[in-house]
């Protein structure tokens, strides 16, 4: 069986579905391929991850129709940010008052974004979603891309998109290598209640031997992120809930009072990825398959949305000019633009992780000095705040 489409997308995560939705009104026929069952997309389980969104990303989500599918009470304002170093009470403070916004951004649970993306694409007759399918072969040439599925069906498309996570099998099948860095750490995420108000302020705490983060949710709840060595994390994940509550409260130096777990715990390996190429013949990577960021900047999904907007804009221009939607020149412009948008912060993030992950005496002095200097330079703080709020 042969199915003809204009665009085939492998991966029905938020990036793949958002890209499909970005082209839904162009007249193109779009097919999205996903190995999971459709129930995993329509009713995704809580996975612990909370996504920090810039104002620009929120604008893109509104344009794509996702925002309307998320309950207002599930959207938490992220007004300010604080960066701590070690046991010092001193912090670098980045406030919304350093911008022209009433907040730096927003916080939404990943599973709610996934559900909203599914609901948005299901309303479009231009998008066909095929679930519980496995891709067994990919071939591209100057005229088309052909994707063979495990049931024998062949999808023929003008453009193929890889959107299947930072560990993308599609990227590998297309012969594209990636710079992958395993930090040798495990990141645990969960939701906790605490009596001391977070005042809608995010924390990034580079402690010695651990990294802590707190993302403020509505009410007295926060998404708690703890990064540790795998063996220590294994102990924390298995800990009885009462012991876990006491330990996490102590790790946060009781600055939020007695913290209490109110969700399941989820652990993820801390691995970053930057694809050596973002395009191939009639092929492009989007989302984490293109750039899998370190979570310290909270810009992974923001960059994914930016890349989607860049590529879809190029395709819309091509359609209006009656040109090939997968020409090499078009895809090359996307690759160059997305590298400009993502590469500097990706490199800077690794430098930050190296400096603030070190526990040697020189590293400790450098860490403390950098925060104090940064806190005193108002233009620097305003620049960081503006970037966090409006990164494009």
Could you characterize the architecture of this molecule?
The protein is an alpha/beta fold. The protein is 36% helix and 29% strand. The protein contains eleven helices and 22 strands. The protein has helices at 14-22, 38-42, 55-64, 110-122, 169-173, 230-238, 241-251, 300-320, 328-357, 361-376, 378-390, and strands spanning 2-4, 7-10, 30-33, 50-53, 76-78, 80-85, 91-94, 105-109, 127-130, 135-140, 145-149, 154-157, 159-162, 178-193, 201-207, 210-216, 221-228, 260-261, 266-275, 279-280, 283-285, 291-292. The strands form four sheets. Strands 6, 7, 14, 15, 16, 17, 18, 19 and 22 form a nine-stranded mixed sheet that branches. Strands 9-3-2-13-21-20 form a six-stranded mixed sheet, with helices on one face. Strands 1-12-11-10 form a four-stranded mixed sheet, with no helix packed on it. The protein is elongated. The relative contact order is 0.17. The model is unreliable at 365-389 (pLDDT under 50).
Number of contiguous helices: 11
Helix content: 25-40%
Query: How many beta-strand segments?
Result: 22
The gross shape turns out to be elongated
Low-confidence region ranges: 365-389
**Secondary-structure content class:** alpha/beta
Q: How large a portion of the residues is in β-strands, by DSSP E?
A: 25-35%
**Terminal residue distance:** 42 Å
Mean pLDDT comes to 88
């Amino acid at each position: 069986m042969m199915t003809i489409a204009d665009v085939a997308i492998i991966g029905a995560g938020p990036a793949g579905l958002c890209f499909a939705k970005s082209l839904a009104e162009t007249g193109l026929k779009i097919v999205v391929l996903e190995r999971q069952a459709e129930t995993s997309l329509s009713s995704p389980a809580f996975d612990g991850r909370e996504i920090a969104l810039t104002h620009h990303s929120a604008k893109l989500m509104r344009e794509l129709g996702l925002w309307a599918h998320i309950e207002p009470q599930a959207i938490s304002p992220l007004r300010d940010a604080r960066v701590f170093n070690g046991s010092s009470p001193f912090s670098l403070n980045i406030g919304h008052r350093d911008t022209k916004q009433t907040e730096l951004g927003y916080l939404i649970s990943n599973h709610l974004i996934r559900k909203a993306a599914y609901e948005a694409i299901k309303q479009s007759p231009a998008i066909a979603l095929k679930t519980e399918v496995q891709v067994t072969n990919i071939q591209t040439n100057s005229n088309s891309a052909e994707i063979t599925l495990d049931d024998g069906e062949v999808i023929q498309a003008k453009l193929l998109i890889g959107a299947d996570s930072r560990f993308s099998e599609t990227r590998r099948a297309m012969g594209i290598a990636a710079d992958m860095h395993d930090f040798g750490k495990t990141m645990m995420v969960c939701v906790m209640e605490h009596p001391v108000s977070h005042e809608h302020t995010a924390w990034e705490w580079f402690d010695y031997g651990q990294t802590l983060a707190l993302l403020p949710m509505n009410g007295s709840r926060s998404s708690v992120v703890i990064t540790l060595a795998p063996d220590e994390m294994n102990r924390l994940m298995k800990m009885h809930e009462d012991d876990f509550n006491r330990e996490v409260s102590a790790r946060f130096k009781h600055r939020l009072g007695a913290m209490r777990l109110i969700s399941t715990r989820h652990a993820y390996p801390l691995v970053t990825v930057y694809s050596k190429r973002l395009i191939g013949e009639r092929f492009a990577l989007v989302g984490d398959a293109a750039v899998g960021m370190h979570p310290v900047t909270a810009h992974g999904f923001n960059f994914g949305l930016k890349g989607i907007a860049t590529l879809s804009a190029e395709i819309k221009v091509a359609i209006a000019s009656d040109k090939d939607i997968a020409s090499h020149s078009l895809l090359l412009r996307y690759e160059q633009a997305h590298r400009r948008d993502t590469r500097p912060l990706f490199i800077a993030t690794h430098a930050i992780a190296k400096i603030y992950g070190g526990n040697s005496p020189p590293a400790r002095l450098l860490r403390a000095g950098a925060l104090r200097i940064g806190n005193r330079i108002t233009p620097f703080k305003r620049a960081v705040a503006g970037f966090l709020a409006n990164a494009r």
